[in-house]
Specification:
Chains A, B, C: InterPro entries: Beta_galactosidase_C, Beta_galactosidase_Trimer, Class_I_gatase-like, GH, Glyco_hydro_42, Glyco_hydro_42_N, Glyco_hydro_b. Chains A, B, C: Keywords: Glycosidase, Hydrolase. The structure is a homotrimer. With about 675 residues, chain A is an alpha/beta fold. Chain A contains 17 helices and 29 strands. In chain A, strands 12, 13, 14, 15, 16, 17, 18, 19, 20, 21 and 22 form an 11-stranded mixed sheet that branches. Chain A has a 9-stranded parallel sheet with strand order 7-4-3-2-1-11-10-9-8, covered by helices on one side. The longest helix of chain A has 29 residues, at about 215-245. In chain A, about 60% of the residues are buried. At the B-C interface, helix 2 and helix 4 of B face strand 16 of C.
Chain lengths: ~675, ~675, ~675
């Protein structure tokens, strides 16, 4: 349990009373929070300037007051450290807190998430205020959890960062000789003879817009270094807090598939993962599901916090549509079904000015409770009270895992050739989406995860194969596992140096193939995947595009062949029997229909069962606690759907009804089915 | 009359003899001007470097010569002050004249309209040269009007501007406390404790491209400040001139719907409004008409100057098509029909080098008068001589007004959410266009205009409601007026702070509605406006898109409802009887067909009559002088159109024919009909 | 012959052994080079940092070793000077080597082709290393040719460049008075009174993205100046080498239609032209053919080197497709057929890291010879051995020339108006493409070329007419030549100042027309070219777009007229009998069908014969040596084509077969037909 002071699904969100100077408003807030079943408020996210009006003065009285008032009314605090935006006075007095951007421009005061992670000033004062807050509130009964800074992100290219980068590199490589080799600086005569010849890679040196780099090695390391630099800032605050409050968990809110930080590395330093879920108007439901699974996977399945979602609309999308009636509730249970133990909103009360004033909130500008949105929040509040601690700490048990790796993603996207349209996350999501449609539970795992717990492991576009990973895959397959990978895998090592001797490099043995060439065509140009006979659900012909490996089998069996172009008849889908298991290779980027048929076949062969068979547009996910399963059935459609529960008997938690056989699930409706 | 020395429609344009060093050319100029009926030349627009070759030397002999020569040949001078581009020597010696751009880059010498408005050097020397010019030419009989600088525009972000901005803010707000509240700096901890913590909002601080800002308050004030800064530059020159020549009018040429300056504020400082009309290849005729009406509205209906138009093509459009035969004449009369008392061209003679050498001119590169374009100019020249002073000072009488406000426009466009596709000017133009098609005369008015002179006032997207404006609207409606406003109105005050208590804020009472939510969808997604029964021309169903207010009536009547989505059946068009008048609310962005039917209904109910009923593509407008009406009928079509003048008897001014009943108007033809 | 040490078509490419530290790899390289028939390796292209690890140390032992080892194995060296990317230490110690970019940003170390051409440091050290290399290897028997730097390009805007620009201008114009007149600085008051008031034209001064400039004069001169500055760098190295090795030819590799350098000026300083041929996925075959012809034309028909092509795919295109089987061979013979005496690849061995690791190579990452690509290379190697010196030094004899001029291109693209869609190279290619389809051999010539050797000279969009060129054209036509030019010709002189008195200026007399106006429409809007009766293959109606001159004949005959718009019936195609010849004017941008019919007519009238009549998709070109013709027939299609050789008897060089009558040419197949 995140904190057993509040043994239920937490319900609350970001609350900024410091933006108001009105007792009447503050009183209304409390009154309405109670009506909505709000029991947690995230305080102090952006109050640094208020907390520390100048270098020597700290002022927390206002915060004491807010925490106390809420607590007296039964509302706990998720306490932020306020360091996500530095005060204006600090930027003026110590310009080192200001970043230099990708274009090499020194920024001035403004916006947020704006501090250089290697600024001595920022590090000193952010650690100091975290320390002061922890010391002050360490024994306050209201504090459930610490929320360090907010949505860390962005890179800086200032001289302080450049100096720190050189130190980071020296720590990593030891000698310039090793660095020169790791980056292949013999290319274009980029050999470094002194550490301070190395400059930060941005628009002024090795990079251009859109992840284009002339040297992948330095660009990859700079991403690692900046991710680490921000993580160091987080750890400074973490340690300052931990010193005072060993028992209160500490987190920072992540952002799903945000590209710039290696969240698997971050999660190791977090007591609980929390994240902010903001689907865009066109985000597929399965993408959100995948992201929940990924956030759960960051700490190997440990339940996570949904730290932010909007009660209705956002403000920063191009078109900020309302969440339709029922959708916010539906998506809240989607999060819970995939491992969330909290549902928090951004924001509890809408601000009156600046850029987020049109972002949804529990209390809107009209200021009263007679709104559709407020009523939907209150309904969830009421349901969470009813659910109590039933679902808390329940785990998801998956037999299929999909590998996700930020460093691999960076390397893939930095690659110059073969195709600008190769999008790592999109390729991963294609595989996830097929399993989602098949109602197969999936874990999203990092490369350090133990594979032996899974029957099937899928690693789409495993371009970068880290040290020891190929051997790990071999052991997994030898022991009976099914491994699937794709085109553009096995190509490079951790510093983006090609593994010589034939693609897919270290994976060649387990896959039993050699890829002689890689064709790249405009995404509109397709080839066909023609199945040799049939295998399971696979038969006939499918479409593929993007990249096309020209492979030769070396022990593997060709399950399907290209249907056209000069490589017509060459294998496009192969499987290699290896030890007790199988290793599949998908040599091009297939259409959705292929992936459903293919993964259905793979799951059947591996004995992996779907959770339930449901109509299209209905989502399933399951949590398990003490042997009791809780099956979530989520109807994303705009119409009632019939769900065939077969012979099983279930207790539906929200209605306390007993269900079995064919039952009706309303549009946007939710079942939480406890097997009885 | 602008200047009674020349009591007719002035005919001339920008003339740059200083670009030539040839008596032969200058002689040809005069010969051809006479052939074309040119009687005004705008001199000295870009001659600063020539007038002041270094810090201490002034040289106006060349200008004496040109003014005199022209005057001896019957051509008057519109005398510019030459300050729209600083000399190269000044940029080298005093770099403070150079701007810092939106990206924070210090510019070097180049281009035009390039001076920092807060540069001490620029202010000193621009005032000084205006003073010298006024002193020298104050008694010259040729000078009809002063033309200060040229097309003021652009913003600067240098340190001088930043310092001046702090002073401007301090003058406006008095205390930082008030500023912090006005900008809601509690958001994201942006509280300022010292004035010099405030920095100019650009790409390096609060803003990004395309009017995106993290703090609308500072961004809005910076626009006001920069508009004021340039206005201060104008006023320095104005006052320097006025001191010497109290009786010669002073103007500067505006640019229609140019976004960066608050022209209503500027017009107060101008003796007569003048503007440059450059429709793009795809500009609707009604947009040009609207812009003329707006320029007329800047000084409450006072006739204005058309300071620039091209005789044929432009050079800076992507595709610079020729003005087809007759079009330049047609558009000239469009300007006159809407309040222009001058028709001036850019330019009288084409330059031989640099970026405007492919811009149309009265005298083209071929250098003689035997061209289509020259002949069209000469025809107009002849007609203007014939028209004499008949139309001078005639006014336009409109009973319908559309409100246009630059500050509201800035705020609307700076808004983060709900939709990036909301375009203030486009929404205004949609209403104007419907009235244009209905042949209803319109005034474009600012928010300071007296409303009592109108029967119908339309304020599309009145997002920002300035102090006292809601009360003014209430009085107008109480007294019998018809008021129309739309979605995204009544939301904020002058510092972009939301009016709490329910949208549309201060307008809620007069409108009798509450807007609970605002949906935003991609512009391709539409809803329907379904009329409840019918009202006037309104019946059946129309289309709407962009934003969709979910409104509840509070006294108003729902005239039409949404036809689909979860708010199907909620009101989309309401009318509230308030005192003796009515207040309409249009809750979404409707299609053109709706607006024609709706505004026809509104006009009929308010007793507003069209000028005439004419075929599509024919435009009408009317000026009135001493009780005599002059009805302009303008045929934009490529074919002859029949015009039904009914029983009225008219004298057509250009042909001196008597017209009545059904008459034919040639393609691109013009009637100026004096009622007899 | 480029160098008679190797009297055959050279076969080899860029080789970077310094990127490897493995005797095993180096041994494999040699073994595989032999298998592939490689006899030339380009060494030392990017090894500056290795050659000169610090300011005082030079190290060429590694290079001795590589040159010797290759030579011992029968492989010659194309020896580069390594100056195309400066060492990191140099950038640190002497920042003047770093460029300032178009946005005014000082760059940091990174990428390549990165040195400021006016950096004293770069000039000193690049000259010095060229000198040292030449001294060291001047007598080495392996060295066939010098390869100075690599793919010169890019502009710099630093203060050193700005200072040098002022000197360059002062040398060119002598006085500021002349410069002010040449640039027409009277416009916008840009008069310069001191040389140091002039600043480099970039985003901070006169220019914007995409060749937009406010002053064409300065922008045009800056392009000339930067092209000259880089050429000066080349010449410094050239002279340093020439001093030591008077007999070894020197070149640098050009880039076809690369926009930034005036290659006609460069070619004068090169002993042999070499270039790098990288067609994009959608480059028409005729565009590549035109570029070969242009490279041949740089030195008036002298055979050239194909210095780089990829054996299969590239890495820097958006989509890097494989070269399909046979295509690389086909394109190699296309180059040879148009004047290449070498076929070299980038690259002999793929690098393992950095941005070109996915660029095709003779030796791929797999490292062995059993690949499709290697086999295709080896086949060519074998064929070149068989061809021996047969084709070396053979010339192309064309009776039709197309004029291409970089300065005219710059001026055309810098023009503000009439149309942003006017693309000089595209207009030139349209004419070339028609002749390509007609199988008429073409020379691409500069403006200094003697015209008397041609029957037909085509100068599309001859916007800038240089001093004496109009007279040259007149003489050519008077003497019986056929001259063709188009809309937007004859407009300006060399400093972009308009020739007054009527377009097309100096060409008006020979063309016998006057263009009164130039209409510009969106490229989607078309007009018709309606032929008056018929002439040769011309009849009926064709389409045209982009620009539309409104011309009046002054002696010329109107062969076709516009079919619509207000200039319907005005001439669109005219021909003027002038002396013994004819001058044609095409007043708009016609469709491909028109150009084929038009140029067929022109060729017939001029007595120019096609090489052969072949099916569409088959290309012909011919080289001649000592009276013997070698006709290349290249089948770009994916199917066998029948070629009708008529009664001629040929020896096919690659198969040694005797051919005549109708023969079959395989898909992607090549004939080299020696007339017998």
């Amino acid at each position: 349990m995140i904190n057993d002071k509040l043994p239920k699904i937490w319900h609350g969100g970001d609350y900024n009373p410091e933006q108001w100077d009105s007792q009447e408003i503050w009183d209304e807030d409390v009154r309405m929070f109670k009506l909505a079943g709000i029991d947690v408020a995230t305080l102090n996210v952006f109050s640094w300037a208020l907390n520390q009006p100048n270098e020597d003065t700290y002022n927390f009285e206002w915060l004491d007051d807010k925490i106390n008032r809420l607590y007296e009314n039964g509302i706990y605090t998720c306490l932020a450290t306020s360091t996500a935006a530095h005060p204006a006075w600090m930027a003026k007095k110590y310009p080192d807190v200001l970043r230099v951007d990708f274009h090499g421009r020194k920024r001035k005061f403004g916006s947020r998430h704006n501090s250089c992670p290697n600024s001595p000033t920022y590090r000193e004062y952010s650690e100091k205020i975290a320390d002061k807050l922890a010391e002050r509130y360490k024994d306050h009964p209201a504090v459930l959890i610490w929320h360090v800074s907010n949505e860390y992100g962005g890179y800086c290219y200032c001289d302080n960062c450049q100096d720190a980068f050189r130190v980071w590199l020296s720590d990593k490589y030891g000698t310039l000789e090793k660095l020169n080799k790791a980056w292949n600086t013999g290319f274009w005569g980029h050999t470094f003879y002194e550490w301070d010849e190395i400059v930060a890679p941005n628009m002024l040196s090795e990079e251009r817009e859109d992840n284009v780099s002339d040297f992948q090695g330095i660009s990859l390391d700079y991403r690692r270094f900046q991710s680490d630099s921000l993580l160091d800032c987080y750890k400074l605050e973490y340690n300052a807090i931990r010193k005072h409050t060993p028992d209160i968990p500490i987190t920072t809110n992540l952002m799903g598939t945000y590209p710039m930080l290696d969240y698997f590395k971050w999660a190791k330093e977090m007591d609980v993962v929390s994240w902010d879920n903001y689907p865009a108007i066109d985000t597929p439901f399965s993408y959100t599901a995948m992201t929940h699974d990924l956030m759960r996977g960051l700490k190997s399945g440990q339940p996570f916090m949904l730290m932010e979602q909007t009660p209705s609309q956002q403000n920063w999308q191009p078109y900020n549509s309302l969440k339709r009636p029922g959708v916010m509730r539906l998506w809240s249970y989607q999060a819970i079904g995939r491992g969330a133990d909290t549902i928090l909103y951004f924001q509890l009360r809408r601000s009156v000015g600046a850029c987020e004033k049109y972002h949804g909130a529990v209390i809107e500008h009209v200021g009263h409770e007679n709104t559709r949105v407020f009523n939907e929040v209150a309904q969830i509040g009421s349901e969470f009270n009813q659910l109590g601690d039933t679902l808390l700490d329940a785990r998801v048990n998956a037999k299929v895992a999909i590998v996700f790796d930020w460093e691999n993603r960076w390397a893939t996207e930095l690659s110059s050739g073969p195709s600008v349209s190769l999008d790592y996350v999109n390729e991963v999501h294609k595989y996830y989406d097929a399993l989602y449609k098949l109602n197969v539970q999936v874990d999203m795992i990092g490369v350090e995860e133990d594979l032996s717990q899974y029957d099937v492991v899928i690693a789409p576009v495993l371009y970068m194969v880290k040290e020891g990973y190929a051997a790990k895959v071999e052991r997994f397959v030898e022991n009976g596992g099914t491994f699937i990978t794709t085109f553009f895998s096995g190509i490079v090592n951790e510093t983006d140096i090609v593994t010589l001797g034939g693609y897919p490099g270290e994976l060649r043995k387990v896959l039993g193939i050699w890829a002689e060439e890689i064709d790249a065509l405009h995404p509109d140009e397709t080839n066909e995947i023609v199945v040799n006979g049939s295998r399971g659900s696979l038969s006939g012909s499918y479409s593929c595009n993007l990249l096309f490996d020209l492979i030769h089998t070396e022990g593997a069996q060709a399950v399907a062949e290209y249907g056209s172009d000069f490589y017509q008849g060459m294998p496009v889908l192969t499987v290699n029997e290896f030890g007790k298991g199988k290793a599949w290779y998908v040599a091009s980027s297939p259409d959705a229909e292929f992936l459903v048929d293919f993964l259905q076949t793979v799951c059947e062969e591996a004995g992996v069962e779907p959770l339930l068979s449901v109509p299209e547009g209905v989502e399933t996910t399951e949590r398990v606690k003490d042997g009791q399963t809780y099956l979530f059935v989520l109807n994303h459609n705009n119409k009632v759907e019939s769900i065939d529960l077969k012979d099983s008997q279930y207790q539906e938690l929200l209605t306390a009804q007993q269900l079995s056989g064919t039952v009706e699930l309303e549009a946007k409706g939710v079942f939480i089915l406890a097997k009885v």
